[in-house]
Every structure is written in C-alpha cells, then in structure tokens.
Amino acid sequence: MDARKRKGYAWAFSAGLTAALAAISAKLFTSQFVRFGLVILFNVTMWGCYVNSLKALSSLQATVTNFATNFLSSGLAGFFLFEEALSFQWFAGALLIVIGVLILSRSSIERKESID
After folding, report:
1. Global pTM value
2. Residue 19 near residue 46 (C-beta atoms within 8 A)
3. How many Cβ atoms sit within 10 Å of the Cβ of residue 91?
4. How far apart are CA 16 and CA 67, in angstroms?
5. What is the mean pLDDT of residues 48-53?
6. Cα 23 to Cα 114: distance, rounded to the nearest angstrom
7. Nearest to residue 22, comparing CAs of 49, 40, 4?
8. Which of 39, 74, 93, 112 is 20 to 30 Å from the Cα of 27, by its Cα?
9. Residue 43 and residue 41: Cα distance in Å, rounded?
10. Whole-number mean pLDDT of the chain?
C-alpha cells in the first residue's frame, strides 16, 4: 500500500473515531451546553477527516473504514465506559466488519484522476 492510501485510511480511521467521540460526549456530559458543543465540534472534525480521506481513497473504502471504526469504537466505549453488555452476535458482527474492511483495503479499486 502506498503512502497516499495509508494517509487516506488514517483520515478515515480518524473520522470514525471522532464520530464515536461525538456519541460518547453526548452520553458522558450532563451540561447541555458542553454536550452540544462537543457533539458539534466532533462532528465538524469528523467531516473534515472524512473529506480528506476521500482525496486518497474511493468513496466505498473511505465510507466503510469510517463506519467500521465508528461502530467498533462506539461499541467498545459503551462496554468500557458505560458498562453496556456486548453479545456474542456483536462480536461476530464486528469480526465480519473487520474482515470486510480488510478485503476492501486490499481491493484494486482504481481512483479517478482529480482535476484540481
């Protein structure tokens, strides 16, 4: 994998993490002002990271990586921070998502040349 794609995956991964942080901050803080402020901040940051990931990856690769990171980090945060139960089905689904992301990351989806 070349440096450009690695950078794209790093941006997509960051987008997923910041999206999860938005959800976590909505549950973690009691002050409405702090809660809404952090949700807006994390969502704006997530969109910036996602747009940057689209510069190096196909929309499918960027979206699936973003979604998988968000799903996994939100679930694990729920388990560790909020003591939510995670069933066997959740772990099985998470494993399938990770396998799917790995398959997509290895695929030979060609990126269209941008006219910037």
Report:
1. 0.84
2. yes
3. 11
4. 6
5. 97
6. 33
7. 40
8. 93
9. 6
10. 90
**Residue owning tokens 């910036």:** 48
What are the helix (H) ranges across the chain?
Answer: 3-28, 32-54, 59-82, 88-106
What average pLDDT does the segment 3-15 reach?
94
What percentage of residues in the chain have a pLDDT greater than 70? 91
* Percentage of residues of the chain with pLDDT beyond 90: 77
At 71, list the tokens.
């799903």
pLDDT at 45: 98
Structure token pair of residue 49: 């990271």
CA 22 to each of CA 30, 37, 44: distance values in angstroms, whole numbers, following the listed order: 14, 10, 10
Residue 2 is which amino acid?
A: D
Is 49 in contact with 18 (CB distance < 8 Å)? Answer: yes
